[in-house]
Amino acid sequence: MQRDLRICLYIILCVCCAGGVQAGGRRDALRRLDDVIRRRAAFQADKERAIDSLRRRLYRAHTDAARFDLYSRLYEAYVAYQTDSALKLIHEKERLLPRLTEPRFRIDARLNRAGALTIAGMYKEALEVLQETTRSDIPPDLLQAYFHHFRTLYGHMAGYALTPDERREYLLRADRYRDSLLSVIPPADVNHRIIRADQLIARGRPAEAVRLLQPVADTCSQSAVMRFLAYTLADAYGRLGDRERQKRYLALSAEADLRLSVREYISLRQLAFLLYEDGDIDRAYDYMKCALEDAGACNARARIVEAAEIYPVIDRAYRIRSDRKQRTIVGLLLGSVLLAASLVLSLLHVYRQMQRLRQARRALSDANARLQTANDALSDVNRTLLEANAIKEEYIAQYINRCSVYIDKLDHYRRRLMKLAQSGRTDELLRTVRSTELIADERREFYAEFDRTFLGLFPHFVEEFNALLHPADRITPKAGERLTTELRIFALIRLGITDSARIAEFLGYSVTTIYNYRSKTRGKSTLDRDAFESAVMRIG
């Protein structure tokens, strides 16, 4: 009997110790999460700096493919951070598609749009975008993203299904795409384990999911992996009824979300609700407030709707407070009049403060509008400076190269004349000196080099210039030509050379001829005569 009692006490002690270890791990995770929430602004500042760095690289990109890749990286940075900006970046990617002939670029942009629309809660539109492309059109490197978007979308749609049959259908489709995901992700990849565990949970086998993920979770140090890994583990523990471990891994997942400045998430909101149920009201309120602010900043409509769970929390807190007030109402009866008066005064004070706040917000809005105008003007100046620098660098390189070529040609010409002089072939020497053929050839070669360099900087100059003219008066270079004389005149104007005397000197014409060309071409424009050359300066 005593032996059995000792065994029972030993078992109880072990259970208590295990529970204490679990609770301690949960408390440590919550303390770390509290610290990350306090430093949330610093993590977001780091993310903004990384985004700014990508944008600077975008300005320096020289090819459409490079720009497309940088837009993709910016999209990945924005999609769970600020959905509206992500959609704008997708639009910029789509503007490049006419110049990128490979189908994978179009499909990549389409998948990005579907992902952003899903986060924004526009499920119908996201599904329409995904269904525009068949499975056979997807290149191998985009298959994982293709299946992921379908699986995520149907999972969201199941959460908002109106009928049980509809929900089952959406969950079935999500499970099929989960199977497809597992078929394209290498088994050694940690994402394969996470998705496999998610599949086990969906099929009612959470204990197997825990056995699959726990060894990885114990050694994982990457926030990008931990946010999904810990959330999946928390889901499994929740289904097993282990609330301590569920809260611990929700905290780890939320910590990873906030370190990465992800604003579209679930973990922190779910953790807040669990903590509220356990009586940790202050922490639950802080977490829910953080989740609501991030969902609003991201414009993640689905998460904003889900965050409406705060209302039952507030309602329950109100009812608890009302019960306590009912129990003490007899003792507080005499003070109710004073309380009501205080309340009226407080309301008046709050009303005045709200009036002042509205005025301050209007003033802030006006200041922001002025600042935005100034920023737009500065952006225009920066673009102009970047373009001027590119033109300057290109023409400096051309000038140096042309000088080198001319020096070599002059040396060759000098040697040829010396040979004629030394051999006494005076007549041939005089004919060579009097000939203008060399000058004509050099001028043609110089103009050809100018045309090639200019069109390298402004490849669509001829088409955009002709768009400013009436259709019947548009200028088309002859076969073998890149630019005509008229086009060269306005090419020089596009480069900032507007003085007719300098243009005449450059092209070897009289000032009168240049003036006539300019006047005649202005007369063919669809724009006002004064606005025509300003429009030419904006080409490219």
Describe the secondary structure blueprint for this structure.
Blueprint: H1 2-38, H2 40-60, H3 64-78, H4 83-96, H5 103-119, H6 123-130, H7 143-159, H8 164-184, H9 190-202, H10 206-219, H11 223-240, H12 243-259, H13 267-277, H14 281-298, H15 301-306, H16 310-327, H17 336-422, H18 426-434, H19 437-457, H20 461-466, H21 485-494, H22 500-507, H23 511-523, H24 529-537
Helix pairs in contact: 1-12, 2-3, 3-4, 4-5, 5-6, 5-7, 6-7, 7-8, 8-9, 9-10, 9-11, 10-11, 11-12, 12-13, 13-14, 17-19, 22-23
Please provide a written account of the structure:
The protein has helices at 2-38, 40-60, 64-78, 83-96, 103-119, 123-130, 143-159, 164-184, 190-202, 206-219, 223-240, 243-259, 267-277, 281-298, 301-306, 310-327, 336-422, 426-434, 437-457, 461-466, 485-494, 500-507, 511-523, 529-537. It has 540 residues and is an all-alpha fold.
